[in-house]
Specification:
heterodimer; A: 334 residues; alpha/beta; two-stranded antiparallel ribbon; 13 helices; 12 strands; B: 68 residues; mainly beta; five-stranded mixed sheet; two-stranded antiparallel sheet; 10% helix; globular
């Protein structure tokens, strides 16, 4: 195959664009696709301070690399989840990337911040590891961005991630989640919180979250990382086995293989023609401040004490850690 | 007879021998791997589906789909 731009030898084929590229022009193609996404969804400007949630994997390091190259003010944030050697090697990849590109990386540890790791949380609460991990990451990414004064939180979610999430939300008709699935999640403000007397007016409780890689397929993100010499962690998280999102991705990849462009049509078709229809479902969930930490949460029943999922889960984990109590065994799915 | 090409598969890591010559598309078909789900790498360089492979080649097939 020949590069679509220079007609030299191609190294990557992008079938949904009916194109192939040499290394240099593939990098230029990814830069242009990301820049287009940033502008189309009005994600941020060069004046904004961006915090990039970095896992050490291909997507988060790729998005950080692209944003630095495009001249944005991008700082990395790594959260050590305490998943043994896997977390150590992930952290090394993030630290090595930051060092090689002379970029600032903030590192926090779940164990140091809250007193438990992801495997411990799963063991203590009976929660599925990926679910507990996601809860911790969403909470800590938002907290770090607010505390460190960043305008925007950037994640490396790619086209495959978004399509797999959309696929799952449609399979289960999670209309509330469908109403919230977007490349930009706006910041939210709340009045009040754990120390009302000290609050002066509304405070920012949710940082603006953006996904600049939504136009980049997972294979393209991996190819970009390899061509750019990014030494990302290739191994899968040891706790991911049986992950539902992964199964959805495998199914979608089969469809994409036989019909290139399927993923793009599904996701961007949803944003253009269907997402608005689910917006009322998402808006119906009124948010209030958690009594423990002030983070936003939803009160489902009248009279219920507003406490966020993270604080509830943390309290349960620390109580069981102290008392030695264990959760009831999970029922196996048939 | 030439030695077969050495193919390193990842996650979990293992080595398989495959007889060439053939192109990347045929190699993946023989190994029952969906091309959209992997990168094929030779000497740190990516290969497209129509790239020819020789018996002496050493390749890596790297999955690109991640969970979570």
């Amino acid at each position: 195959m020949k590069c679509k731009v220079c007609r030299e030898h191609a190294v990557v084929d992008v079938r949904r664009h009916n194109a192939a590229f040499c290394g240099d022009h593939f990098v230029a193609h990814i830069h242009s696709q990301v820049e287009r996404t940033i502008k189309e969804f009005k994600m941020f400007t060069p004046e904004d301070r961006l915090l990039i949630a970095v896992s050490g994997g291909k997507d988060s390091l790729a998005v950080w690399d692209v944003l630095v190259d495009l001249g944005y003010d991008a700082t990395g944030f790594y959260l050590d989840l305490g998943i043994g050697g896997y977390s150590e090697r992930s952290k090394e990849a993030a630290v090595a990337f930051a060092g090689a590109r002379n970029q600032k990386l903030i590192i926090r540890s779940l164990a140091e911040e809250h007193g438990f790791t992801v495997p411990e949380l799963s063991r203590l609460t009976g929660r599925v590891p990926c679910s507990g991990c996601g809860l911790n990451k969403r909470y800590e990414f938002n907290r770090a961005a607010l505390e460190e004064g960043f305008d925007i939180l950037v994640t490396g979610h790619n086209l495959d991630d978004e399509v797999a999430t959309l696929f799952g939300n449609v399979l289960h008709w999670n209309t509330d989640m469908l109403g919230r699935q977007a490349p930009v999640l706006e910041e939210r403000f709340l009045e009040g919180g754990p120390s009302d007397a000290e609050q002066l007016g509304a405070r920012r409780v949710l940082v603006r979250k953006v996904k600049p890689l939504v136009r980049i397929a997972e294979r393209e993100s991996a190819a970009y990382a390899l061509i750019r010499g990014i030494d990302y962690i290739i191994e899968e998280c040891p706790m991911v086995e049986g992950n539902t999102q992964h199964r959805y991705k495998e199914a979608i990849t089969l469809l994409e293989e036989s019909s290139p462009g399927t993923k793009q049509h599904m996701y961007f078709g949803f944003l253009k023609r269907a997402a608005d229809r689910f917006a009322p479902d998402a808006a119906a969930s009124e948010i209030v401040a958690c009594v423990d930490c002030g983070a936003p949460t939803i009160v489902w029943e009248e009279g219920q004490t507003p406490r966020c999922s993270f604080c509830k889960t943390k309290a349960l984990a620390l109580h069981r850690k102290e008392t030695g109590e264990r959760p009831a065994p999970r029922r196996r799915r048939r | 007879m030439a030695a077969p090409m050495k193919v390193k598969l990842r996650n979990p890591d293992r080595l398989v021998d495959v007889t060439g010559p053939k192109n990347v598309r045929d190699l993946l078909r023989e190994l029952d791997i969906v091309p959209e789900a992997v990168l094929v790498i030779r000497d740190a360089t990516l290969l497209t589906r129509d790239e020819g492979l020789a018996d002496s080649d050493e390749l890596e097939i790297r999955p690109v789909l991640s969970g979570g």
